[in-house]
Amino acid sequence: MIALVAAPSSLGLRPPRPGAVPGAWRAPEALRAAGLSERLLAAGARDAGTVPAGPYLDDDASRAPGHVRNEAALIEHSRRLAQRLDEVLDAGDAPLVLGGDCSILLGAGLALARRGGTGLVHLDGHTDFRHPGNSATCASVAGEDLAAAVGLHWPAIADLDGAGPYFDAARAVHLGHRDDDEHADEARRTLGLVVSAAQALVQPMPQLAERVRATAGAGYWLQLDVDLLDPSVMPAVDSPDPGGLDVETLTALLAELAPAAIGASVTVFDPELDPDGRYAGLLTELVVEGFGALGSALPR
What we know:
- The protein is an alpha/beta fold.
- The chain contains eleven helices and eight strands.
- The protein has helices spanning 27-33, 36-42, 71-90, 105-114, 145-149, 155-158, 184-190, 197-202, 205-216, 247-257, 278-291, and strands at 2-7, 46-50, 94-99, 120-123, 172-177, 193-196, 220-225, 261-267.
- An eight-stranded parallel beta sheet has the order 2-1-3-8-7-4-5-6, sandwiched between helices.
- It is globular and about 45 Å long.
């Protein structure tokens, strides 16, 4: 069955303004208020609790070189999330993690690496492939999570407890970046499969999903950053960029990919940018329809 895990963290995001806290940590509660948990529980899921994060600090003025923002708190949160995911997977359930920002991928990666490793399907409006080898401005893991997940970041986050790389780059798929993404070429050279949003929109869905599954292998982790959606339908994210997927296409893609996933995470929805709750409602529908069969094609 699906086990819902809330991971209300904004630790990997830059502050929207000096001294402010990004609002993505509020997403699990906003989605609960929109009826997501109630609907999934009624369909047979279970509530596997909340993994709270430590306090967010705007540490730009005090952070030493060679460290990401909120590094100590982010590492601790990743370890505690990994422990919770271990418990869910040991019970034979499929975890659905409601974030939070994209840095929660480190917790999922740590848990899966300790179990022998899986593939990764990274659905995101950006490659999140910034790392110390291609940028002098590394700081926010929410824009660097994919690079860290395949071992291309500082060891403090890319090799937690000696478990890195958390995912084999040859079994990692990224889908959804815009054509002007500055790290797309490097991602293509490094990962098993990279597909832009523009390419995804013109490929037949069954063919696209088969390419993704063939690269990642059965039992992959499925991470969705909702900025994959075009901002005309989902503006409530920290970095909206035009040229994304529409709701129908993304829902169909998730429905194709979720059954073969060992677990999944949903990230970067910011309720502070959704004052009337309309986008929480839209995201609730997308998650219920797209992830409803999460893990169902895998032996348990």
